[in-house]
Amino acid sequence: MFRFIHTADWQIGKAFGNIEGDAGAFLRTRRIETVRAIAHLAGKHQVDAVLVAGDVFETNTIAAKTIMQTLGAMAEFEGLWLLLPGNHDPATTESVWSKIKHNFATPNIVLLTEPEPYKLVNHPVVVLPAPLQRRHEQRDLTDWFDTYESAADLIRIGLAHGSLDNRLAVRGEAPNTIADGRVASARLDYLALGDWHGTMDIGDKIWYSGTPEADRFRANDPGNVLLVEIEGPGQAPQVQKIKTGYFTWHQIEKSVFDESDIADIANQLSGTDVPMNRLVVRLVLAGSVNLETRAKIDKAIEKLQASVLHMDVDSTGLIAEPSAEDLDQIEQSGFVRAAIEKLRTLMHSSDPAADDARRALHLLYVEHKQLEQKT
Prior knowledge:
Blueprint: E1 2-7, H1 21-44, E2 49-52, H2 64-74, E3 80-83, H3 96-104, E4 109-111, E5 118-119, E6 125-130, E7 155-161, E8 163-164, E9 177-178, H4 182-185, E10 190-194, E11 200-203, E12 206-208, E13 224-230, E14 238-243, E15 248-255, H5 260-270, E16 279-289, H6 291-307, E17 310-320, H7 324-328, H8 334-347, H9 354-374
Parallel strand pairs: 1-2, 2-3, 3-4, 6-7, 7-10, 8-9, 10-12, 15-16, 16-17
Antiparallel strand pairs: 1-13, 5-6, 11-12, 13-14
């Protein structure tokens, strides 16, 4: 029997440029800690190897310190690691792989940078890798699997990074395609794939492991590794999904009528099995409220943002309609009142500046409330 962990898309060093400050730093640091967690799982389940199906690193220009930290996390499993270059870290002449080979090489870490079979020592297994040697490939890099002849008693495992033809509703990141009949044509016992960031059982002995640490709001079951057991050649693989993700990414779309709807969102988030400070949230709001309610909603959102790791808020669909009572609170006469009336008229017109007028009234009202609180 051969037991291994199938994982992919670590993308160590990912910048998370749209997530500023400490939150982005926590996300970057956690990816290395998740590798450490995979090493612990490998030891716990006494696997024979860990197979990483591409995009180990975010780029080929990764810092030496980050490489060392990653290899340090991997060192907590002394068994075999098989690493495949993907579209983020292709095996070019000057790549992260050449840096590892020349500066950080260890006997138990095998860099599968060439399309050559790798036969495991002391195990009846051959791994057929399809490494990316440039970022974009138009040809199917798994073609050579079909013509490689191996002994009948060897388990044949394919390792590739790309989009499986005819099996994905949306393509993965890499444009290179993989024939959906490759398992049959190459007589594979398992095809371990990377590039699709969610866990997916394609069927016919084909799996995407997904990224072990979520990095986007797509609901495709990220944050896992796969524990795979194969009894022998021709035997169906037994696959167990194991959760590894530390942070959880949620996208919530909500029609809002008053501040109680934000409280409902807070209850929804706090009701998950993940602590609030480990949530990354994208909140998309829609609806129409008056300015007083909008101010209360903004305050409730600010409080909610402070309770999670990070929250993006898209409130472009939430229209703040000032009521007569809202506007009467600001000023009954004078220049400001005249400006308010002009903005109200413009807001209800077909003029392209109508939205700007609405935002201006909202800002006037918020400023008025803030001054009122100070006096």
